[in-house]
Each structure stands twice: as C-alpha cells, then as structure tokens.
Amino acid sequence: MLGFVLSVxxxxxxxxxxxxGFLVVEPGLVWIEDEGRGPAVAVAVLAAVLLASAWPFLRGxxxxxxxxxxxxxxxxxxxxxxxxxxxxxxQSFGDEALGVVPLAMGVLALGSAAWxxxxxxxxxxxxxxxxxxxxxxxxxxxxxxxxxxxxxLVLGWALECAVLAWLGTRLPGGGVRLFSVVLVGxxxxxxxxxxxxxxxxxxxxxxxxxxxxLTWLVSTVAVGLASRWHARAGTLLGVPVGPLLWFVAVGLAxxxxxxxxxxxxxxxxxxxxFGGTLGQNMILSVCWAVFAVALLILGVVTRxxxxxxxxxxxxxxxxxxxxxxxxxxxxxxxxxxxxxxxxLTLLGSAVLLQRVVLRERDEEVEEKNKxxx
Length: 373
Known about the structure:
The protein has helices at 2-6, 12-25, 29-34, 38-59, 68-93, 100-118, 127-147, 152-168, 175-193, 211-233, 241-264, 278-301, 305-326, 333-372. By secondary structure, it is an all-alpha fold.
C-alpha cells in the first residue's frame, strides 16, 4: 500500500512495493500451510492482488512510458500472490478444483488487457497490452498441469505451445513465443522420462490406440505447427526458432513410430522398445528405413537440405541397427539375407547421397550464384 501511495511521486515505487510486499509473505509459506492459516492469508493476499490490479485504472495512469511502471505492478501482482492463494484455496476447498486459482488469475490479467484494448485503444504493440497478455498466457499454461495432471499434462502443453506460437504471430514482442518454446522443452522432457505415458495408474493400454500413442502424435503435430508459425514470425532473440522446432517435430515423429511399434508387440501389458522379439526388432528396423526414405522424399520435394541430411542420418542409423543388433539374433540363411539387405541399404544410401543430397546442394549454390550475378 505504501508503494502505491509513493507512486504519486515515482511510478516505480508501485513496482517495488508490490514485489517487496508479496516477497514478505513467501518465507512464511511453510508455516502458513502447516498451521492451517492458508484461508486467512489468502483473503489478505487476494485483497492486495485486486488492489494492485485496479490501482492504475483507479488512478488513471498515463498512457506514455512514464505510466508503464504502474501497469507493470498491476500485471506482476497475480503471479507474485499466486502461491499463497493456491495454498488457501487448497485448505478451504480441497484439491478437486485447484485449476480455478490460476484460471481466475489469468482471467483477471486477460480482462485488463481487454480493457486496454477496447477502452484505452491500446495497440497490439503497446507494452501494457503485451504485458497483461503474457501474464494471462503464463496462467493458462499453469492451469493445465495444476488441474489436469497425469497423462493430460503433456497433451495440454503440446496444444498450448502451438496456440502460443500462433498468438506470437499476432502480437509483437517475444514473450508469448518464448513461452511456446519453453513448453516445447517441457513436452520433450516429459516424453523422454516417460515415453509410453503409462507410469501412472488406471491406464487403458489398447494396442495402437491409447493415451501413449495419442500423446506422441498430438505432440508431433503441435510442435510441427508451432515451428511453422515461429518461422513465419522470424527469429527469436536472434535464434531461428522455426527450423529448430521443425527438427524437434521430426524427432517426435520418429519417437511416435517407435512407440507405436512398442505397443504393437507389447507383452503382459508392458510395451518394450528394446529387448523384444526378433519380429519386433526387424519390423522396427524396416520402419526406421521407411521413415528415413519418407523424410528424404520430403526434403527433395520441399528442396530442404536439412531434411535430406537428417534423413540420411536416420538411414545410417537403421543400417547400423541391423548390423549391431539384428544380425546377432540370426543364424544361417537369415543372417546372409540380412547382410545382403544391409549392404543394399548402404549402397542405396551412397547413391542417394551422391545423386540427391549433394546434387541438390550444388543446384542451390548455382541458383544463388545466378541471383548474385
């Protein structure tokens, strides 16, 4: 409150007051939770959040840069007060609807952005509008894991990363797009530590059609769309995010293929990628080769050198798997046939590398030289 009073003389006093006021509460969170004082503290924090959010509207903060600190303080109040509010809600109403708190905070920030847009005629490039939209996006991303935990977490984050990437093409600044990239990293991390999305109870494992396969496929499509929209928006902090996310999507597509094969050959309700039957290993090798060829064709059609090089890498990976793993389990005529198949794969790879990948690169160089001349 003192910060807002002093903001009459210096707008930045409001920011300092909001940050300092909420940080005072944070060290006592353990005591608040243990002693059951969450509801009382939450009421006080909620009053402070509402006051901070309404202050620039009540005071009539100027629209120029001099008034921006007041709007920044209003935008920072919901994130800073979120944890004590969440504890108080949990102790009062239980954990059945924990997502209500971040959802309400997001609606508060989104309402402020809508007011600025409609009543204050703020443009999309206005720092006040972008700040409130970024805060609303933060709570939208937080509401999914808080309320919809378990297997829906990855699905929710994957869809949100695509939505935020699309929103980033409409809003200036990189805040929303940065959240999108962070969510992609979260999706990849969660899929890496639980690739089959089956570590949690009450999971219905149906071959080829289950939560695990659906999560991988949706994540692949979402990250692919996000890469396209990031590429359309340009670089982010000087980094070409669009092409990088495209290769992340390619990796997720490759992971989806492996997960589908694992579920198709699962035994006793438990999918296994490695150490399965001979048939599973051979099918997996064939799928890797088909995936590499499909990616190579895509690279040729779209004239994308990166896709072609990655495709050659997957093709070499498939051939290496046959040599190192598959041949060890074969004997007699089957081993001879596998040697022959691997040799033909390597020969075909060499021909494709020379006739397609390197040739396309030479044509690109020639086209660039013609453009310069």
